[in-house]
């Protein structure tokens, strides 16, 4: 069976609707799919309905933003119960934080002489929360910068005038939310953070100590030695192994649905914790 346990719809920072996402997963011969939008479960019902209609097994998921040291990390929750009061309170808190951050970014851009950025970013975001990429696209649209990279380099990047920091909840807090909703907590794409291997290992160790359940050993297309190394680190920390494309939009072959290496045979697959047999 082919599992893809990390992907995004237009309810967060993906492009496709949940229905289109599931249809693409079917085309890519994915057997078990988890939708893991950032800090929202808004697309799960639609994805579940579409999956039922086309014969894909669907798993409720979410991806929470968390804090480790001075940087942000992402924790995926798999198999969550959407009627969990604690989960829904957590989502509301995260989205309120995002809204407040967006307002602060807009205020700073206004101070820099760029008006209407909040409304413009909201229009671009549509169903999703407003994030820096939407502000960046707005800056391009109004001619303030030439391209997305320039928007970050001039206004939105680290240390720039519209760079608004936010202290996300600690990993133990996020893991607690996921467990309260009956889910499994997975540390997402550990190699995609700007960390040395030593610091990455420290992050994984802290995640396990905080009650985490699994490590994303495979995230999209990656080199075999990377996969093998992460498998060993997961085992050393008594963590199960997860895998996913981290799909956001078509045209990115390295993050295409279902297109990634298999988990090493030495791994304990996370789907065993979810009650599945491959």
TrEMBL record:
CDD domains: PHP_HisPPase_AMP
SMART domains: POLIIIAc (SM00481)
Residue span, Polymerase/histidinol phosphatase N-terminal domain: 3-68
InterPro entries, sorted: PHP_dom, PHP_domain, Pol/His_phosphatase_N, Pol/histidinol_Pase-like
Source organism, top-level taxon: Bacteria
One Pfam family from the record: PHP
PANTHER family attached to this UniProt entry: EXONUCLEASE, POLYMERASE_HISTIDINOL PHOSPHATASE N-TERMINAL DOMAIN-CONTAINING PROTEIN
Protein name: Phosphatase
């Amino acid at each position: 069976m082919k599992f893809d346990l990390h992907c995004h719809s237009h309810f967060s920072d993906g492009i496709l609707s949940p229905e289109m996402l599931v249809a693409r997963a079917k085309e890519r011969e994915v057997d078990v799919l988890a939708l893991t939008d950032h800090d929202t479960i808004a697309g799960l019902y639609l994805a579940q309905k579409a999956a039922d209609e086309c014969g894909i097994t669907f798993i409720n998921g979410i991806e929470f933003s968390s804090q480790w040291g001075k940087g942000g990390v992402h924790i995926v929750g798999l198999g969550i119960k959407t009627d969990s009061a604690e989960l829904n309170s957590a989502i509301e808190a995260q989205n309120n934080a995002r809204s407040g951050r967006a307002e602060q970014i807009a205020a700073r851009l206004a101070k820099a002489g760029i008006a209407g950025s909040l409304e413009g970013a909201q229009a671009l975001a549509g169903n999703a929360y407003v994030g820096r990429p939407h502000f960046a696209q707005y800056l391009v649209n109004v001619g303030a910068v030439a391209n997305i990279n320039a928007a970050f380099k001039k206004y939105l990047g680290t240390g720039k005038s519209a760079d608004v920091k936010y202290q996300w909840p600690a990993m133990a807090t996020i893991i607690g939310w996921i467990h309260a909703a009956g889910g499994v907590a997975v540390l997402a794409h550990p190699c995609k953070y700007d960390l040395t291997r030593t610091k990455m290992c420290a992050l994984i160790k802290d995640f396990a100590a905080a009650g985490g359940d699994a490590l994303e050993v495979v995230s999209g297309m990656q080199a075999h030695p990377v996969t093998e190394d992460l498998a060993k680190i997961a085992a050393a920390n008594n963590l199960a192994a997860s895998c996913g494309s981290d799909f956001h939009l078509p045209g990115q072959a390295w993050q295409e649905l279902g297109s990634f290496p298999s988990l090493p045979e030495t791994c304990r697959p996370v789907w065993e914790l979810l009650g599945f047999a491959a």
